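SAMPLE LOG
Freezer: B-3
Tube label: C17
Construct: single chain, 134 aa
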Amino acid sequence: MTNKARDGGATAVEVALLMPILLVLVMGIVDFGRALHAQITLTQAAREGVRVAALKQPNPATRTQNAAVGLTGVGVTVDACPASPSSSGDSAEVEATYSFTFVTPVGSLAGMLGGGGFGGPITLSAKGVMPCEG
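STRUCTURE (predicted):
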């Protein structure tokens, strides 16, 4: 057997050992990017909803859900401004939540290897607070 044939076998073994690690790394990058995008979208939606609530415009919950473009099933909790503000310290609050599910098996792999809570969907949340406008 020549040295060239032995080198080809060694290369195949190296690829077989490194490929799963590289694939898990790439899948983790994909899911992390998706989760970061969902969190940024949720934060922007909460900011839009609290602006609507602080200005005492109608339907802040609907506006928050509409602002969460690309996310379905966004839960919204609104603590709106009182009809007649009692003090200058009154503020509106909007909290938006979203259940993020992994599209790659990296979440399940992390759960099997001891990563707490990554096997199923994770809940992302964002909160917006803004002072009430007179």
